[in-house]
Structures are given as C-alpha cells and as structure tokens.
Amino acid sequence: MLNICLTFLLSFLPLHTDAGLDYAEHLKLANESSDYCMDFFDLMYAHQYDNSTARGYFGVATMMQAKVYANPFTKLSYFNKGKKILETAIQDDQDNVELRFIRFAVQKKVPDLLFYNNNLKEDKTVLDNYVLHNQDQLAKNIEDFYTLEKISS
Q: Quick one: pLDDT band at residue 4, thresholds 50, 70, 90?
C-alpha cells in the first residue's frame, strides 16, 4: 500500500536538487526497485543533515524501508520512524512548502489505520496560499495533485 502511495506521490514531486543531488529522482528509482530502496536510504542517510528538505526525504526513505521487510511490525516501525523524521524536518522549517506538500500527499494517500492524517487542513492552507501567489513547477504540481484527488482549492 505504501508503495502505491509513493508511486502516486512521485508524479507530483518537484525535482528538488541540492549540490547536484536530485532527491525526487532518487526517490523515484527507490520506488521502482526494492534493491535501490536500500541505496536510497543510505544516500539520504548520508545527506540527512544537509538541510531540512534532505531530512524530509530521509524520512520518506525511512518509510520506504517498510517495503523491504515482510513482518508487519517491522513495516510499521519503519513507517513511524520515517514519519517522525519528516515531522521534525517540517517543525524545523515550517515554511518549506515542498515538505508540506510531501506530508500532505502522504497523509492523503496512506490508509486511515495508520492514523497519519492530522495535518491535512493546516498543510492545505499553506499549499493553497502558495498556489495563489506562485506560478512555478511546485505550484503546478500541487494543482495537478488537487485535480487528480478531486480536492478543491
């Protein structure tokens, strides 16, 4: 289920680059291959302290470790660890719209039984404001996500 969620999310992520590292491209590769999933985790682990965006992607990489393991308790453990890392990245950089978009999309797509949907209203307000005042690729990606998910802005 997390794999389907991340596949959907990938089509809307901005191509954030930092010092030549394209986080979204590596996330896409990890989502396509369980073998690369560990490589993506290792890569983002090495870059997690570069900036808040890298830390947020490390959180997603940690969540993705759930697809490597069969044990449901291990899967849940990795999801919760990744969630905590993403939340900390957002707490440290509350104005980072890319992180807010990642969290919003994940919270919209993960099953309710994971109880990870408590920031939807807050993040939607941030995203709506961003779309209203910007016309860049991130704003377009947010609007596209809204359209596909039938979310009014």
A: very low
Other CB atoms within 10 Å distance of the CB of residue 114: 15
- Specify whether the CB–CB gap between 59 and 45 falls below 8 A: no
**What gap in Å lies between CA 7 and CA 27, rounded to an integer?**
9
pLDDT at position 96 is 96
101 vs 78: CA distance, rounded Å:
21
When pLDDT is averaged across residues 124-151 and rounded to a whole number, the result is 93
Residue with tokens 């596209």: 144
- Residues 10/26, Cβ–Cβ less than 8 Å: no
Is residue 101 within 8 A of residue 86, CB to CB? The reply is no
In sequence order, what are the residues at sequence separation of 6 or more whose Cβ sits closer than 8 angstroms to the Cβ of residue 43? 21, 26, 61
Q: For residues 62-71, give the mean pLDDT.
A: 89
110 touches 5 (CB < 8 A): yes
Distances (CA, A) of 115 to 28, 109, 131, 141: 25, 12, 27, 25
Tens digit of each residue's pLDDT (9 = 90 or more) over 71-85: 999 999 999 999 999
